[in-house]
Design brief:
With about 260 residues, this protein is α+β, with helices and mostly antiparallel strands. The protein is built from four helices and 16 strands. The strands form four sheets. Strands 1, 2, 3, 4, 7, 12, 14 and 16 form an eight-stranded antiparallel beta sheet that branches. It has a four-stranded antiparallel beta sheet with strand order 5-13-8-11, with no helix packed on it. It has a two-stranded antiparallel ribbon with strand order 6-15.
Length: about 260
């Protein structure tokens, strides 16, 4: 573990809400590419497709496929993912939440808007981490963009539907509008396969559209720490977990969300 991340990485993650880790998953890229290819050919019923009227390519995203795609499961249970997560979160445990696949075809032209992940989820807590793992080289112009320190805002950002820009839930005092992004330092990096950007669920982030003549495949793996618990939202979450049958404040059920590390 000492060779993969250090105290500077942990400090950056907790202070900025984001850190880049170079080459930590290089040995897993071939496996994950095989899984991604399988995924593109067989998306789940949860898959969403986005289009831009001026571009030919599509933007596909899909959730919660780790049980169906053995390469994803192999990575989740047998890589250093959970150990890195627990160290970054300063948590004794690391519980798997879900996977998220992004596939942008050439010239898809659909950007990922600025948002926080947390308001879309059925969880709350400070100890959370999302791993953004591109499967090919990525120029900074089409890489992930994140606002350093935005995970420390007092309220969550009002979630919206990416397709319609309408509020995801009924307006509530619990949410705030997106702040002026110029008030934050934007973190973005050129990446190579094996690099990963790790960030807190509350860190505001987005990505530019893929208008290049190359495909873009990215996997995200989300994990929870000691203080993360179930939270009932005022509507359908994304991803949704029908039949989860949990109450506010409970630890997420182990049969759906396995604990990968407990120290």
């Amino acid at each position: 573990m000492k060779m993969l991340i250090n105290q500077s990485d942990i400090r950056s993650f907790n202070e900025d809400g984001v850190v880049i880790l170079r080459g930590v998953f290089s040995e897993w890229i071939e496996t994950l590419i095989k899984g991604a290819e399988r995924h593109i050919e067989n998306p789940s019923e949860r898959a969403l497709t986005h289009h831009h009227e001026k571009y030919k390519g599509q933007f596909l995203e899909d959730f919660c496929n780790w049980r169906a795609i053995p390469e994803y499961s192999d990575f989740i249970f047998n890589s250093s993912l959970a150990l890195i997560a627990s160290s970054l979160m300063k948590s004794k445990s690391a519980q798997f939440f879900h996977d998220h696949f992004f596939y942008k075809e050439t010239n898809s032209g659909v950007p990922t808007p600025w948002h926080q992940d947390m308001p879309y989820y059925c969880v709350s807590g400070q100890q959370t981490v999302s791993f953004w793992l591109p499967l090919e080289s990525r120029e900074k112009s089409v890489s992930l963009k994140l606002l350093a320190g935005s995970h420390q805002l007092n309220k969550e950002i009002r979630p919206t539907s990416w397709a319609s820009n309408e509020s995801f839930y009924e307006d509530s005092e619990a949410f705030m509008d997106l702040p002026d992004i110029k008030e934050f330092t934007t973190k973005e990096w050129k990446t190579e396969p094996g690099d990963v950007v790790a960030f807190n669920f509350k860190t505001i982030h987005g990505a530019n559209a893929n208008i290049a003549n190359t495909i873009s495949r990215t996997l995200s793996f989300r994990l929870l720490g000691d203080d993360a618990v179930y939270k009932q939202r005022p509507g359908r979450t994304s991803p949704s977990f029908p039949g989860i049958n949990q109450k506010n404040g409970e630890r997420l059920r182990e049969d759906w969300f396995p604990t990968l590390v407990s120290r």
